[in-house]
Predict the 3D structure of the following.
Amino acid sequence: MTTPAASPMIGARRLHVGDTAFRISLHIAGAIVVIVLLSILAIMFIGGKLAFDTFGLGFIWGSEWNPVTQIYGALPAITGTLVTALLALLIAWPIGFGIAFFLTETCPSKLRGPLGVAIELLAAVPSIVYGMWGFFVLAPFMSEHVQPWLTATFLWIPPVGDSFFWFTAPPIGVGMLTASLILAIMILPFIAATTRDVLQSTPQLLKDGAYAMGATRWEALTGVVIPAVRGSLFGAVFLGLGRALGETMAVVFVIGNAIRMPDSLMAPSATIASVVANSFPEAEPGTLDLAVLLGLGFILFVVSFSVLAIARLLLRQERMS
Amino acid sequence: MDAPSVVHAAAPPASTRIALQGINAFYGEKRALFDVNLEIPDNAVTAFIGASGCGKSTLLRCLNRMNDTIPGARVEGRILMDGTDINGADIDPVQVRTRIGMVFQKPNPFPMSIYENIAYGPRTHKLVSTKADLDELVESSLRRAALWDEVKDRLGKPGLGLSGGQQQRLVIARALAVSPAVILMDEPCSALDPIATAHIEALIDQLRKHTCIVIVTHSMAQAARVSQITAFFHMGKLIESGSTDQIFTMPKVEQTQDYITGRFG
């Protein structure tokens, strides 16, 4: 019988050159994210500082936007941004939930794959395509059919104060409502896909528990599944909202680009992103004009960041409980 | 004067609660059960034993039509509960599951308070009309599941905060709250430590006085401890069934003998 050559249990420490290089490169990759993020934020703030210095809080709360007199208040653009994004969310949320529930609960398994791919394709349509479609197809349709009907039907809703008339406006097609519809279509696949993933990750054991108690699909879904994943579902919605807030190209086509406080949901308006996109080519370096745009960018950044942070927080809360 | 009532020396013969006649089950192409015939008595614990994949859990899930929720699953044959075929065309599976409770391998309390867990069934099926009645039902269900004393001061706390054994008793109480005629248990102690297991087994023994219990277990010792009837399955076939005493002391089939003595495979 031969004994195998004894191998040293503890040898001299070897130099793991490859491992060290790998670790350093990972650190660099991680650092790049933070550096890019912070530098964008810093440039936006420094560039926009002149606007904040000139108008103070009035830059955020001011409702007059007049390049001729050089008075810039961002409130119309902020309002346009929030209203279109929230309206889009209001439209896309129920539909997205419906799609997700259908896919996870009642969809025949043969249809599940193709439908899932279709949703992903919807997410892959470039926003400029949505914009053109919105301008050439959706806006005329809104102008000829939907808006006159809305005006006639909802005339009875009392206005807010004497300046906001809900659905009473000239039916010109472009405006906040049309922009909201386009945005709704654009965020729909995100809401549907994220909600589907959340529902699919619900343990089968939990659903079985509800079914075994004699719950119907609807009762199991509303009474057990949704309460279990409530936070994640809100997270899905906030991700959609974050996207709607920053979307630019499609909105520029259909919102009408009027930087004033809207007097109805169908009125032409502007979002922060659309104002920046429209005005940037004319803004000379070093002027107040450019500072205002960069300041707008900073505001949008903060708003979007807050929304994403809330989404993260809700999603994490779920995982911990 | 009335004739004196007959006094039975032994317990009266258990009446049949569920009769299985020619049960075949399929998952897609795969056949999981072959022509199973079995009578499950009331007020007793019936244990299904056998190696993994022998079809015992499949059969259990046939009894409350849980296989309906699995795509591609198909069940043939007649399952008569108190004489009614639960697979009948005019039978609502939701109603079947209200009459037949189920406890799973791992405790699965709903992500809500202890109280709400128990109230779920009565609320869903509108069994009670007042808050007082519901409170009473929650208490009596928890008492029957031998959990009341441990949770009475924290009914509003989440059910998921309880220990594993308490959670399993919570889901048993949840099932009891709708007064099921039958309780199915699919390896209810497989995720529990020996002490929690002893609690559950004592509870099962209490519950069988008023209900029909069917338990699937991997532990032959458990089957011997808690059941009165044992059915042994192998490769989707019912090999032998009879009183637990008989199956464990003088099985008629050699395969059963081999399995219970551990000389298997």
